[in-house]
2,3-bisphosphoglycerate-dependent phosphoglycerate mutase
Amino acid sequence: MSKLVLIRHGQSQWNLSNQFTGWVDVNLSDKGVEEAKKAGRLIKEHGLQFDQAYTSVLTRAIKTLHFALEESGQLWIPETKTWRLNERHYGALQGLNKKDTAEKYGDEQVHIWRRSYDVLPPVIEDDSEYSQAHDRRYANLDPHIVPKAENLKVTLERVMPFWEDHIAPDLLAGKNVIIAAHGNSLRALTKYIENISDEDIMDLEMKTGEPVVYTFDEELNVVNKEKLDD
């Protein structure tokens, strides 16, 4: 039976300052580095060994993966980075303080933008300092598929091709896989893996730096789920 470990990146600098981050490339905070290292120690303690690693093209996820693999003695395993595992794009909210935004638009509206399955936040303009329109890491993508705003539904739609083409085939081949990514890209994967309803997914939280371990049978049915903690 194959195993899949999901880790939301450790606390980022913008998690700490309470800003909407999305596709903006911010670093881990000191606490986030420790959370990532702790995840690696827990992985080692539980004897989890991996054949393949996946992460996004954003620094906070990449560093989380590297710290976790280093602590577990597995920094050498094959690794693939993809934009399809990026955090959801928060559109024009990117860079804004969450508290200030709630005061401006109301708690209910901000909650809908953050948690609704299919409501889009306001679209970001290309000339915004927080836009990815001119980011070199997306230069080889069709400009029409680089998002200007995403909800969880759209995030799931762009994550699924990568699941179907890479992650699922690895698991079906009996490989153990680790993914270090983001709260919403991992919520999207979790929704699919566990067949969670559009309504219930709004309440799902992914804790920073907490490894979630799935065990699958040969038909990719989940036979066990475990969260690693002290």
